[in-house]
């Protein structure tokens, strides 16, 4: 039999559990991707960030942060055109990927497997390796073609998590809405946090 004993080091296992790929595409809601990066930094999660060209435009349009300041929040950043980056291969262990915000264009590419950038290729890798893929798809309303692609993605194992605000927390600021959603995304990825408020039941009971 070729080869020797296979040894799984603790280091490799730990890295697999703590390494998250984050994609920021050109849908509205750049602040959500930024907040996720900030949260991961605080929680000690290694992040690999890819921002699409349109994502850079929405960051400039919607936030007070420069693209380079956003990139500085990540442990590693990759150019969207760098299809040779580590996260383009299934042999590079990660816990999965969150695309937030996720545009219809990126979502559609991921649904078909015809990926033209590192962002969509890295998402495709998560699907083929059966890793968690969370897509915070932001568009409204959806047409039937969008809904068919979303169904296809859900059937392939992706979690479709549109950034829909939770009103039961009575948010007073945009940051509260952003935090609630960010905490929810982290929980979906299996990362416990106290950024999102938990629902503890109706006040005064049912
Ligand atoms: C300010 C701004 C807001 C946008 N908002 C959305 C959106 O909410 N959802 C969406 O699917 N596309 C939105 N778009 C269009 C996408 O950016 C465009 O389809 C782009 O080609 C997406 O490319 P990407 O998936 O590579 O990021 C927006 C564009 C701009 C400039």
How would you sum up this structure in a few lines?
The chain has 206 residues and is α/β, with parallel strands linked by helices.
Total number of strands: 6
| CATH topology (level 3) name | Rossmann fold
Oligomer: single chain
Helix content: 40-55%
Order of helices and strands: HEHEHHEEHHEHEH
- Any guess at the CATH architecture? 3-Layer(aba) Sandwich
Report the C-alpha radius of gyration, rounded.
18 Å
Largest sheet: 6 strands, parallel
Strand order of the largest sheet: 3-2-1-4-5-6
Distance between the termini: 65 Å
Which regions contain 5 or more consecutive residues with pLDDT less than 50?
none
EC number: 2.5.1.129
Domain Flavoprotein: 19-180
Binding site for FMN: 26-28, 52, 103-106, 138
Keywords: Flavoprotein, FMN, Prenyltransferase, Transferase
For this entry, give a set of tags.
206 residues; globular; 6-stranded parallel β-sheet; binds flavin mononucleotide; 15% strand; 6 strands; alpha/beta; Rossmann fold
Please describe what this structure looks like:
The N and C termini lie far apart (about 65 Å). Helix 2 links the parallel strand 1 and strand 2. Helix 5 packs across helix 6 and helix 5 crosses helix 7. The chain has about 210 residues and is α/β, with parallel strands linked by helices. It is globular, with a radius of gyration of 18 Å. A six-stranded parallel β-sheet has the order 3-2-1-4-5-6, sandwiched between helices. The protein has a single domain, classed as Rossmann fold, CATH 3.40.50.1950. The model has no long low-confidence stretch (mean pLDDT about 95). It binds flavin mononucleotide. Flavin mononucleotide (FMN) binds next to helix 3 and helix 5. GO terms for molecular function: carboxy-lyase activity; flavin prenyltransferase activity. Keywords: Flavoprotein, FMN, Prenyltransferase, Transferase. Its EC number is 2.5.1.129. InterPro entries: Flavin_trans-like (IPR036551), Flavoprotein (IPR003382), UbiX-like (IPR004507). Belongs to the UbiX/PAD1 family.
